[in-house]
Amino acid sequence: MTRLTKMLAGACAAALFAVMSVVLGSPAAAASLVEVTTFGSNPGNMRMHVYVPDTRPAAPAIVVAMHGCGGSGPGFHQSSEFASLADRYGFIVIYPSATQSAGFGNCFDTWSDAAKRRGGGSDPDSILSMIGYVERTYGGDRNRVYATGSSSGGMMTQHMLAVHPDVFKAGASFMGVPFNCFAGASDYPPGSSRCTGGSMDRTPQQWGDAVRQAYPGFSGVRPRMQLWHGTADTLVPYSLLRESVEQWTNVFGLSQTPTSTDTPQAGWNRSRYADSSGTVQVESYSIQGAGHALPQGGMALYAIQFFGLTSAADTTPPTTPGTPVASGVTATGATLTWTASTDQGGSGLAGYTVYREQGATDQQLGQSTTNSITLTGLSAGTQYQVYVRARDGAGNLSGNSATVTFTTTSTGGDTTPPTAPSGLAASGTTASGTTLTWTAATDDTGVSGYHVLRAPGASGGTFTQVGTSATTSYADTGLTANTTYRYQVRAYDAAGNVSPVSGTVQITTAPGGTTGGCSATPTVQSQWGNGYVIQPLTITNTGTSTMTGWTVTFTLPPGHTLTGSWNGTVSTSGGTVTVRNVGHNGTLAPGASTGSFGFQATRPNGDTALPSGYTCA
Fold first, then answer.
1. In which element (H, E) is residue 354 found?
2. Pick the catalytic residue: 72, 79, 151, 239?
3. Among 262, 389, 511, 546, which residue carries the largest CB count within 10 Å?
4. Contact 590/481 with Cβ under 8 angstroms?
């Protein structure tokens, strides 16, 4: 059977399973699934179903749960455990139904240019409308919005967290792919896709840059990411789990080596990637022997636990905050302080929301985790009547504080841009990076930060933003060896005014090593009692000329057996394994690497040895 035939058969089976789930149903729950026909702007022409548990806090969390290709919102409701968990823990579930085809039927749009732009239209904007509807209609907590989904829905989970990091707090992607894996509509049908065809291989820096460029101005807290994949998945290859891990660990600035590994259930191999404070920002699950059939029983609970939604039910609101006091009032801002609330239900005080009274629908002005806030973006010469509400970790809201009234001054807002930065210079240039420094810009209200722009070559090309800095320096990494780049810097202030660009500095990266050399570096993705996965086995061209093919050899310890591999041609002789490149990953420029090859092996139970003697030619 051809690969495409297998994929289509798998998709049909998934669709059949979704239909069977609707017919057979699941145990009756206290609430019922409701379709919402008018929820706001709907450029993706999607359908919306929502599950609202009868017992929930005043400001419940929101989980967006998305089906795979060929499925539907009601089908995913029936075939997954999110609704029963909502009954138990009091969150609301949105089940969108996709209608995009791209040759495969009811798939979420993760390929079009419109879907990759904030406010560009298509499915992402429809999903945001659904979230807004739940916030307005059921008091959903906009600070606790999460995404999850299977296959196409898992792809959309990673997509939404990349394009809208300001909306979501965390995501759990089952059998998904990294953001921007699909180049366009022509690349989407899995049978002909470079993304899911087993040939996708980018560096962690390239994957991370794709996310950062989706929202260049974002400076808030990135949503945490949980990733699931079956080792026997052929429809969306298991190797893409590693590509997703590379993307999201790079986004968080974390090492590719997990900070911890364990086996929470038999056959579930979990790798966790924590930051310096110990917070797990990314975690991945390799499900041994599982095909394209996740989530399975119990996995949804682990997703909800990762979201932080499984604490004991707390329905007691915090005490009401004290009357706010206004100070430092300007034409566009003011500082408010108030007496802090206390939490009474055990879930902890989470913060405060500040509202302006304005008729039937009050306007939210801002949020704070302390008993003070500096408001910005107010209208000049305008009277404001403002009150504060506290919220706890379970989403319960306090009563309204008494109001404070203040009037902003009549002077117009800040429209003066900063001066251009000067003295741009580069130092410490290596084969893959350089460090930029410059003299600070000045501004009448203060410089907030700097945009760093880069263009290829000594002339021509377009300057594009590659990063931001709050200081007067920036380290640019992931560059190509022996290559020329140009840089400029511009400043911006709190009002969004942008300065002219600085002068241009040009650098040429160093050569990438000696002619004809290469190296092979293994990474242990996960291991358990009688097996392990090495992914990636990174091949790096350490020479000064482009290589068009590579061969890696290594030795398996006695009793170890290779059980699977991807993105390489493998042969074995006794305990010696020889791997040769395939068509898409053999050509490497000087200093370039490929991390697409990986393999899985079994070993005697209790044996902790790993392969050794890696050589590359």
1. strand 349-356
2. 151
3. 389
4. yes
Burial class of residue 46 in the structure, from the number of CB atoms within 10 Å of its CB (0-12 exposed, 13-18 middle, 19+ buried): buried
Instruction: Read off the tokens for 32.
Output: 């019922």
> Which tens digits make up the pLDDT trace of 112-161?
888 998 888 899 999 999 999 999 999 999 999 999 999 999 999 999 99
User: Residue 522 pLDDT more than 70?
Assistant: yes
278's CB contacts (< 8 A; 6+ apart) are none
In tens, the pLDDT along 21-52 reads 333 233 334 589 999 999 999 999 999 999 99
Report the distance separating Cα 278 and Cα 266, nearest Å. Answer: 25
CA atoms of 246 and 257, how far apart (whole Å): 10
**Segment holding 366, helix H or strand E:** strand 363-368
Which 8-state DSSP code applies to residue 100? B
Instruction: Tell me the one-letter amino acid at 212.
Output: R
Q: Is 151 a catalytic residue?
A: yes
- Residue pair 156/94 in contact by the 8 Å Cβ criterion: no
Peptide bond into 522 cis (omega under 30): no
SS3 226: strand
Local structure of residue 92 (DSSP, 8 states) = E
Which domains occur in the chain, in start order? 3-254+281-307 (3.40.50.1820), 325-407 (2.60.40.10), 422-508 (2.60.40.10), 518-616 (2.60.40.290)
- Per the CB < 8 A criterion, the answer to whether 168 and 149 are in contact is no
- Cβ count near 155 (within 10 Å): 34
- Point out which residues pair with 94 in neighbouring strands: 50, 64
Q: Are 450 and 490 in contact (CB under 8 A)?
A: yes
Phi, psi of 50, deg, nearest 5: -135, 140
Length of the chain: 617
